[in-house]
């Protein structure tokens, strides 16, 4: 192997050791709500500074482009005021999941677009599209659930992790394909193609796991801020009602809506006490959650 391949292989081995050993070496902290797990050690194989610089540049370019197209909603817009008010309540709890978040330059903007989308880039750069608010007729609790989800991707450094995982998985797949071709005497191109496809399925699994973590941690943030975590169920019920077609779950970067609802409900016993505490009422006295109907 060339020196470059040797270096990449060394990184892959290091990542593999972290994947297998970090969970055993760093047990989750036992706390209320969703358990806080240490950030994976292998994420250091991707540069945090470079990732944040890239994110800042991309976010700035997006906002500039939106402004030029008159799609950047002005600060006095009621919906943007609403988003920023919700963010102000969530942000104080973010350092619980990533201490670096206490120093982030948080930004919240709203883009006039029919897209049903929202995101949070590394460093706390949040954007919502007007389409997700109007198409789902979101309540404040539901906005908090979505915002918490997107913030979690940044807090848990999922993009940084994915870079490491994808690189390591791709290299491992290529080495496996080469080994299989040599051992079984098959066409190296066929072996490489099959190994790459298997590697992509592993990467999709990583992505789905990130989404599941973002669902639960996002609702933990929302509940601590005084927003009803049962809104997370309502969000996915509304998404299903939109009738948007989904790929099969095992070929998707996202879990199915039914899977997400099941997992949220399975953890509701951890989330509702946080919400009750934030509201200052016994959990038994919490009223039933009331959502809003989708627009016709």
Keywords:
single chain; 296 residues; globular; 5% strand; 3 strands; disordered N terminus; three-stranded mixed beta sheet; 59% helix; mainly alpha; 10 helices
How would you portray this structure in words?
It is a single chain. This protein has 296 residues and is mostly helical. The chain has one domain (46-281). The chain is built from ten helices and three strands. The chain has helices at residues 3-25, 48-68, 78-90, 130-135, 140-155, 158-184, 188-224, 231-241, 257-266, 268-279; strands at 107-111, 118-121, 125-129. Strand 2 (118-121) and strand 3 form a beta hairpin. Helix 1 (3-25) crosses helix 6 (158-184), helix 5 (140-155) crosses helix 8 (231-241) and helix 7 (188-224) runs parallel beside helix 10. The longest helix is centred in the last third of the chain and has 37 residues, at 188-224. It starts with a helix and ends in a 17-residue tail after the last helix.
Q: Which blocks of ≥5 consecutive residues have pLDDT under 50?
A: 1-30, 164-206, 245-251
Helix content: 55-70%
Q: Please give the largest β-sheet.
A: 3 strands, mixed
**What share of residues are in beta strands?**
under 5%
Number of helices: 10
Number of strands: 3
Q: What is Rg? A: 21 Å
Supply the number of structural domains: 1
Structural class: mainly alpha
